[in-house]
Amino acid sequence: MGVGGKLCKTCPMVLTTVHLVRHGEVFNPDKILYGRLPGYHLSDRGKLMADRLAEYFADGTHDITELVSSPLQRAQETMQPIAAALGLAVRIDERLIEASNYFEGKTFGVGDGSLRHPQHWPHLINPFKPSWGEPYKEQVARMHAAVADARNRATGHEAVLVSHQLPIWIARLAFEDRRLWHDPRKRECSLASVTSLHFAGDSLKNVTYAEPASDLLPGASTVPGA
């Protein structure tokens, strides 16, 4: 498969892998949709998840030469043990940031959440765009550009990019030539998960998925937009 879902028929033999990592669990006792808000750091379990990711990438089977993080605190904290284990510097890329969202800073739900208030309903009229936040196509453009830059910098090796659930999932859907509109409950992108994009030259061969911290997931935060 090539970039944008096109099949790779005559791919060069230079193989490069870009790992899209979702950050670990965040300390969020009020269960708000924190989005791009500053000051949200990893919970104790999130720190264990980050340590598990460091073990995963430093197990001797990977050839990591490039580390890139979203500018948000939770992403950088997730990257810290990985960088320490590999002895590599971390580059910050604004394009890996969480998607913007109208409901940022609010609780999101029907009970005591934002959805019980009619003034918010107009922001939900178009799930295909979506009307409540950053358009899916804009997320694809910035994420694919960040992936391309990391792939070029790590040619013949591997890169680790720490980002957020929605941008990672939307980027994957676009790479696999799938529709961008989706059911958020069906995203294959758990906390501390690794979505690996395997390239031959600049053409995507396949995508694999791993959950190095799967045993830490039960009871972990599932607040949307994390």
UniProtKB/TrEMBL annotation:
Annotated SMART domains: PGAM
One MF term in the entry's GO annotations: phosphatase activity
Pfam families on file: His_Phos_1 (PF00300)
CDD domains: HP_PGM_like (cd07067)
Cellular component terms per the entry's GO annotation: cytoplasm
Gene3D superfamilies: Phosphoglycerate mutase-like (3.40.50.1240)
Superkingdom per UniProt: Bacteria
InterPro entries linked: His_Pase_superF_clade-1, His_PPase_superfam, PGM_Phosphatase
Protein's name according to its UniProt entry: Broad specificity phosphatase PhoE
Species the sequence originates in: Rarobacter incanus
